[in-house]
């Protein structure tokens, strides 16, 4: 089978890129042809035979004020045209969409259906929802200026995005986000997709509030590396010589970093290790009992996770199905996770970890203190983690071929 993976970034940038690279690699290993379409970038690591990509756009910079940007982030004629070139060169059976809004735009959906009409070939369009973009213009269901999480834009009330300046706290960018959402709602564009993969029940519930999407959603949790189960089963907290509380991920407000740092300051007797990077890095480095390891990957990250007494995932937005929580659990490390979004679906409270109220620093502090002072509880949780049975990437690949691609 020929599969075209579509994502705005074709270099390591976040969870959606981890997803497409690992899934694409496994599909190729199983004998399928996989190519990629997205933006050109100096760090691009995958591509297509036609060597055709859109020009790079950065929605986070002031370059949005350029004359054509407000039009291009709503509908990209360039993306549709260049997508058509790749489609005609590859003739795929499946087009698997991921993060496409703003930089690529849903114009790529029209490119596929136009290709079908011209060639008479049927192409299945699959979309993995890595965020809430199709029901929330700022994709996070969170008002950045206040930190408030909300459902105001559901049921098509997209004007709330402009009202609350939900995109980068900018009036112009938020207005463009509102226009984009209304534009594609009116044209029922997202209804042209055949299947929508939701990595959590929470995500599925949000997308199902749109009747156009409700009949197309399927819940499939994210996958883990093939070797993760073996490594996780072999991990013993009793044998570990390291003893610390771990946070690994982006240092950002919506990730709950500031709240966690408050808890760290209140617990000076507990050593914390942070691994990652982000806009709050300076704050991280100012807390005396926090050791910042910076951005860690590969075997070094696995060792860091396995060596922790427990990890903390304090996110303050509706996370989807975070790889970080899954990785922690399969390496035998219990997780203290906030109660927001799909993340708490991964943790069995009182068995493989604990759940606290997102944004509540007092409750977070108390949970950390209790877990630290009762290592036997962490050991019990760690033993229970051995029973966790997430799909490996190979199992996920087989499932997606059977249930989604055909």
Please explain how this structure is put together.
The chain has helices at about 15-30, 70, 75-90, 105-120, 160-165, 170-185, 200-205, 210-215, 230-235, 255-265, 280-285, 300-305, 325-330, 360-375, 375-385, 395-405; strands spanning about 1-5, 35, 95, 125-130, 140-145, 150, 195-200, 215-220, 245-250, 270-275, 290, 310-315, 335-340, 355. The longest helix is centred in the middle third of the chain and has 16 residues, at about 170-185. It is built from 16 helices and 14 strands. Helix 1 links the parallel strand 1 (about 1-5) and strand 2. Residues about 230-240 have low confidence and may be disordered. It folds into 2 domains: about 1-130 and about 190-225 and about 395-405, 3-Layer(aba) Sandwich (Rossmann fold); about 230-385, 3-Layer(aba) Sandwich (Rossmann fold), CATH 3.40.50. It is α/β, with parallel strands linked by helices and about 400 residues long.
Strand order of the largest sheet: 2-1-3-4-7-8
- How many H/I helical runs? 16
Provide the CATH architecture of the largest domain: 3-Layer(aba) Sandwich
Principal-axes shape call? globular
Cα distance spanning the termini: 10 Å
* CATH fold description of the largest domain: Rossmann fold
Number of domains: 2
Helix-residue proportion: 25-40%
The top-level CATH class of the largest domain is Alpha Beta
Name the CATH homologous superfamily of the largest domain. Glycogen Phosphorylase B
Per DSSP E runs of 2 or more residues, the count of β-strands stands at 14
Structural class call reads alpha/beta
């Amino acid at each position: 089978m020929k599969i075209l993976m579509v994502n705005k970034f074709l270099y390591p940038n976040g969870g959606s890129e981890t997803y497409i690279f690992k899934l694409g690699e496994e599909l190729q290993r199983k004998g399928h042809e996989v190519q990629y379409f997205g933006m050109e970038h100096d760090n691009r690591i995958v591509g297509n035979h036609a060597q055709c990509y859109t020009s790079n756009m950065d929605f986070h910079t002031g370059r949005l004020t350029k004359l054509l940007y407000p039009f291009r982030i709503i509908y990209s004629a360039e993306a549709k045209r260049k997508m058509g070139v790749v489609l005609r060169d590859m003739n795929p059976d499946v087009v698997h969409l991921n993060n496409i809004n703003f930089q690529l735009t849903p114009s790529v959906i029209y490119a596929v259906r136009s290709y079908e009409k011209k060639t008479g070939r049927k192409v299945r369009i699959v979309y993995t929802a890595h965020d809430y973009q199709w029901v929330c213009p700022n994709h996070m269901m969170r008002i950045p200026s206040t930190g408030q999480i909300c459902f105001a834009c559901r049921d098509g009330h997209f004007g709330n995005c402009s009202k609350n300046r939900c995109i980068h706290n900018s009036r112009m960018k938020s207005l463009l986000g509102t226009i984009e959402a209304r534009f594609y709602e009116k044209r029922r564009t997202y209804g042209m997709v055949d299947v929508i993969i939701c990595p959590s029940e929470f995500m599925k519930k949000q997308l199902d509030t749109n009747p156009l999407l409700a009949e197309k959603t399927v819940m499939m949790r994210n996958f883990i590396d093939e070797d993760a189960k073996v490594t996780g089963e072999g991990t013993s907290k009793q044998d570990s010589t390291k003893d610390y509380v771990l946070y690994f991920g982006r240092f950002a407000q919506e990730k709950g970093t500031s709240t966690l740092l408050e808890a760290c300051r209140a617990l000076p007797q507990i050593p914390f290790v942070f691994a990652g990077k982000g806009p709050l890095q300076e704050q991280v480095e100012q807390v005396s009992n926090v050791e910042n390891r910076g951005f860690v990957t590969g075997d070094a990250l696995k060792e860091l996770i396995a060596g922790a007494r427990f990890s903390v995932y304090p996110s303050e937005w509706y996370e989807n199905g975070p790889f970080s929580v899954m990785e922690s659990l399969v390496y035998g490390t219990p997780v203290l996770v906030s109660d927001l979004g799909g993340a708490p679906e991964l943790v069995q409270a009182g068995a493989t970890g604990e759940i606290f109220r997102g944004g509540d620093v007092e409750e977070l502090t108390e949970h950390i203190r209790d877990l630290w002072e009762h290592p036997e509880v962490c050991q019990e949780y760690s033993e229970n983690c051995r029973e966790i049975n997430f799909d490996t990437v190979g199992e996920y690949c087989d499932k997606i071929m059977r249930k989604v691609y055909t």
